[in-house]
Amino acid sequence: MQASLLFKNLVSSLTGLYDKNEAASIARIVFEEKLNINRTDLALDPLRQINKKEEDKMERLFQKLLTGSPIQQILGHTDFYGLKIKVNKNVLIPRPETEELVQLIINENKKETGLKVLDIGTGSGCISIVLACGLKNADLTGIDISNKALRMARMNAKLNDVEIQFKERNILEKKTWHSLKEFDIIVSNPPYVTESEQKDMHIIVLNHDPHLALFVPDNDPLRFYEKISDMALSHLSPGGKIYFEINEAFGKNVKNMLESKGFTNVLIKKDLNGKDRFVSGILV
Ligand code: GLN
Question: pTM of the entire structure?
Fold first, then answer.
């Protein structure tokens, strides 16, 4: 069969489930990973053929994609800030916004060396792993309530050849805080989608990302931010910084909450889509 034809078929069958650009980008990933055929190959050799075995392999993969499995879970990995991160159903698939969060932290702290960093709700470990690579001699700790997520995080640290201490902790439980030491940076991308926002979510996210990593009750949308900030009051070194990824609807609320607890230089930053997505603050 002609590769370019198969490509077109895949894009058109995915359109509907995804918008056209997403469908094309998924098809490109599939072709590169599974057939070793990239965009240029397709353009330069439109008559290129694939054999029956490859065709069958693609057929099986198409079926999984069409039943709504995310491409990252089918392949078992994704790219995050240029690194390979393994994913499965127990961890949130790393998002492009979170790449912006780590970029921000690296930009603001790359001159320092030996920073002690805590990543709360580490999931796949993507934030800690990039920070371990991007900050000089940083000492990274990642915590998560999910042991299954931590298993992935450990695998990902090994895969990317960085050393991170991963610990199972529920940050909402105050009694576990004493077992954590002092940090110069605390970062978190906690669950922040309110239950009533579920109805606006893409079915694929809703069906495949772990709800534990996504949702907060409508009547308590800042629960993680409040607890993490309280914990930070006793676990940040003088001048230590806090960085959050947030729900775009709650920028001001998170800012006010941090200021009311005594954080200074509290800033809301926008993501590439122009939405309030990050809040940072300093504890002097
Ligand atoms: N940004 C994610 C989403 O839109 C949510 C991540 C989170 O809750 N921390 O699905």
Answer: 0.94
